[in-house]
Protein: Orotidine 5'-phosphate decarboxylase
Organism: Paracraurococcus ruber
Amino acid sequence: MARPSTAAARLIPAIDTADPAKAAALAAALAARCGALKLGLELFTAEGPRAVRAMAALAPVFLDLKLHDIPNTVAGAVRSLLPLKPAMLTLHGAGGPAMIAAAREAAEKAGAARPVLLAVTVLTSLDAATLAATGIAGGPVQQVLRLARLALEAGADGLVCSPQEVARIRDAFGQAPMLVVPGVRPAGHAAGDQARTATPAEAVAAGADWIVVGRPITGAADPAAAAAAIAESLPA
Ligand SMILES: O=C(O)c1cc(=O)[nH]c(=O)n1[C@@H]1O[C@H](COP(=O)(O)O)[C@@H](O)[C@H]1O
């Protein structure tokens, strides 16, 4: 998956629905207006691999299953997913370096066509207080940087983080890691369950390669127009 060369290619709509007909309609409307389509747990648990195949016929698929288990199990899951040829795949950085390394080794079996492996750092729905309640003091930025270092050293190609950590990650790790950024809200849109947010333009200006946007697009009366408006808002 090459880095985006146009504003529209930076956009990854999250197709979060359990309804295959709705997913197909959204994918058809958005495929030409984005860099990839994100298929996550809601659709995958409802429809499984056939949903991935249907979407892959229209655009590169970002398969967001956030794998998080012992290394042997995650490696097996990656092997099972390779025939679906996802362009990008997520796993939780909190699974530790051995888990990331096992995923990378399994993915290498697909050769040059292997998925980009993205380590999710700290979920964008978590604020400092919630993170502290789970036992992680010091705030999201420190934890994101800690998990980012472990994941990149273990073989992750990139990271998923909130827009609020992007600049710090670029400072610490430079341009090499691919950065995929959810928790993005165009001005005037409710944050909902997202805790660490910024606008699409702010995320890209800080150094995001791709932005992931779900409800502001999928909940719009005209999803294609909403996607186009977001792409137009991005810095060149
Ligand atoms: O891995 C992700 O894509 C992800 C990581 C994260 O920390 N936060 C996050 O919101 N996401 C995903 O990004 C999408 C955000 O959707 P909206 O909040 O509707 O824009 C959802 O599909 C989430 O599963």
